[in-house]
Each structure stands twice: as C-alpha cells, then as structure tokens.
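Let us work through a complete example step by step.
Step 1: write down the sequence.
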Amino acid sequence: MRSISYPPEPTDLPKLHSAAFTFPAIDNHAHALLRIDNRDSMPFEGLISEAAGDALTKDSVHTLACYRATHQLAELLGLPAGSSWDDVKVKRSELAYLDLCKLCFEPVNIQCILIDDGLGARDIVYDIPWHDHFTRSQSWRVVRIEAVAEEVLEILFKPFDSAPADNLDLVKLLALFVNSLTGKLTTSATDTQVVAYKSVVCYRTGLAVSATSYNNGGDPELLDSFKRVYETYRLHGKLRVEDKALNDYVVCTALDIGGRFGKPVQFHTGLGDNDIDLVLSSPAYLQSIIKTYPDTTFILLHSSYPYTREAGYLTSVYSNVYLDFGEIFPFVSGQGQRSIIRQILELAPTNKILWSTDGHFWPESYYLGTIQARQALYEVLSENVRSQELTEAEAVTIVENALFYNANRAYKLGLKPVQR
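Step 2: predict the structure and record it as tokens.
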C-alpha cells in the first residue's frame, strides 16, 4: 500500500493526529464509479470541477484545486515531483482499472459508502454492491426522489405522448401519479438497503420549497404544473420534473414519508454546475419547510458553499438539521477548505456535522475527497487546541463524530468503527 504524505505527527497532539488521519470514516454521500469499459467516457477534469465545456476542460486545470490535486495524485501514482496534470492522466490510464481503484481506496480508510444512484448514466456505472470490494462494511442506497418521480411520470405519460393535454383527464392522471409516487417512496422507506432520500430540487426550481397538498379534485396550481410537465414531454420528448409546484409536491411527499419512517432527506445545496440558480441554492430558503417538517431529518449537502454560514445557522437552531461538509474536497483550494471548516465550526453543533467525498465516476475522487478532508479537519482543530479553545480530547471527539459517529446515528446504520 502506497503511503500518503500527511503532516508529520507532532509531539504535542499525537492523539488528534491519529484520529484525523486514521479513524474509520462513513462516506455519507457519494455516487457510483464508472465501469471498466467506460473508465474514459467522461472528461477527467470533472474530478476537480463542476464546470462544463471550455470552463471544465480548459479553465479548471488552472485552479489552485487542480494544482494541489495534481501533486497529490502524482505522489499516489509514483510520479516524480513536478509532474503535470497530463502526466497524471497518462499514468492512470496505464494502470489496470481494479488496481487503480484499490490504490485509491486502500490508504483512506472509508468503512462504508452511502451511494446516491440517481446521478444518471446508470448504464456506464457499477451497481451499489460492487463498491463493497473496497470497504469493510456494506454500501447503502440513497434514493433520488426526482428520479423516482420521473420514472412514474414516464409510465403514465407514454400511452398519451401524442395527445394534447386538454384531451386527457389530468385530474385522474395526477391522482395516479400521487398514488404511485407515494407507494414507491414508501416501499423504499421499508427497504433495508435504503438509508435516505436525496433531492436535487436545488437544480430544478431552487430551494424555496413551499409546503403543498393534494386533494382528489386536484389542486389548481399543482394541476397546472402537472399539465406543463406533460406538454413539455409531449412536444419535446423531454421528461424532467422542473416545474415548481410539482417539484415542491415531490419534495414534500418525501419529507412526509421520511419523517414517518425515520429516513433522512439529503438536499443538494450550494456548490454545483451552471444548471443551478446560484441565488436559489442557499439553504436559507429551506427554513420554512424545515419548520413544517420537524420530525424529518434534513441533511444539507456540500457545505452549502458559498452559503456555509447560513447552513451552520440552520444546523444550530433546528434539531432536525445536519450539515455535510463534502464536495469542497477537492473542488476548493486548501485554504478555502480550511476557511469553510472554520465557518462550519463557528456555529454548527459538532454532533451534527457529517463528512462525505461526493465521490463519483473516478476512484481518485474518493481518494482526494478523503485525504483532503482529513487534513483540513486536523489543521483547523489543531489550531483550536493550540489556542486553548479545545482540549486535545475534545478535538479527537469532534473528529470521530464528524467522520463516523454522527452519520452512523443520523442514518441508523448500527455500525461499529473497524480499524485497519
């Protein structure tokens, strides 16, 4: 197993150093890896940026995040100092794929992964159990609710794909949608492999989610929204839930079921690609719906960057809100990562912060997402200990909670940390 160049163990904080860099971790939000035959089907620059087009392939390689990732991957791959991003790409392509996966997973001590399998491209990624090759506990499924809604709608709409909406009994179709969506999400809630739901409403219509209801007569606003989604599908062959009333209803349905069955609901917040309305990606917009569903656990993903302080505030004042500090590794520079961790710790209770890689497609995303998170936690908490704001024992507890115990409790996994 190749070694990682972490900061040397200090004489004054050996227990914190050990906890930060070796304690088992639960990756509470990630995605599947590409199949071996598709290992090169996506631009590798997606490892370090959510951009697209030239902003991804030409610009992202000039970020501090990419320079740092290049150095760390070059070391992992045994390349000489000063190797370039292109050198890394060539070297990784020369390795057998399973060897590359093992190389990335073996040093980082991820005990289990919670995988959102609704990212798309399902035909080119591995199924969830395949990832158990690289962990000591099983992987778990996170159900993406918009994907479920779209599957239901496609089944309902397909027989009528050439009929104008005015020729259909939309009230009946909407009732069928409501019943089927509720049934599928309820079935998921009773599936022992499912530990949470995930919403990407942030990408679709923003986080200003309103509480919605349904009655058998069809709520006019929801019915109009349903009609627009159908017409878009009929005219353009495009089925995507991106009309606000319908999106809000899907979210509220999941929040209700999640609360009744004890399944947290993860929300993409903040950091994303250019499909997001950045202003509406602030978790502050969720405040009303958080109040409406006090029995449902909300997980704010991706540090809500650049709205981290807003997320920390919500986590501090609502007992049902948790904050994930993921995706910023490796998308944000090292200094930026430490600044974000500091902002999280300004206000958020440390028993409600969760770590994730947001690993996806490439095994290197899991590697970088872990080693950079461990280093950021260590560096920020060691500052607090040395300034006598924390004891070393308290800092160790924060690390162990953030990496393992908080997620274990929030998702009811029932795991015990397994040391290497």
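Step 3: interpret the result. The chain has two domains: 14-138+268-410, 144-182+201-262.
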